[in-house]
What does this fold into?
Amino acid sequence: MTYLLFHLTFILPPLILLLALARPKPPRLWAYLLMPLIALAYTTPWDNYLVWRGVWGYPEERILLRLGYVPLEEYLFFCLQPLLTGAFLFRIAGHPPKARGGWIRWVGGGIWLLASALGVLLVALDGPYLYLGLILAYFSPVFLLQWTFGGDLLVAWYRPLLLGTIVPTMYLWAADFWAITQENIWWISEAYTLGVKAWGLPIEEMLFFLFTNLAVVQGILLAWHPEALRRLR
It folds into this structure.
């Protein structure tokens, strides 16, 4: 199986089905369509660095071509994953609840600030801590901004926050397991991971999908909440 066939098998069918069921309409549609562009712009330098360092890679026979260090299909995944996760979110989000407990914003922000610092420390240690450190150092600042801005809104909207993150993440864990163990579409370096696995996947790889989906879900929910728009104004 090639990387492109992986998209055609695991990503596009559920995406098309969810969009057909959800039938997204404005005003929520604009944030949904903007998210893949944000994900592509933010993740591209990070992913190129990981491939350059040899944290993960792709057999040449599984990809079409490379743009920089990263295959074309990987850039396509940066766009498809937010669309898939967002399409599921359309089905479960419902109406935004009223926010309570503004202190949650600062507690959440503090937690993600510590996670950011831990990520920088792990990157400095290099070796088996590198992949985990790069995940924490690159994505925790995003969560820091999201929670200091609207953590109370996210907690109030806890059901779509949890389901919208967990369900797509578990699906992508299964697809990732198949891609690595059965099809060798990409590989993860043992030299830059801790060697701890769950359900056949390195914990860093599992955390990657969890964090990327969490960033998408939180970003879309904040964009959909009227109070977040009022705060921006």
Notes: The chain has eight helices and six strands. The chain has a mean pLDDT of 95. Residues 117 and 199 are 28 Å apart (CA to CA).
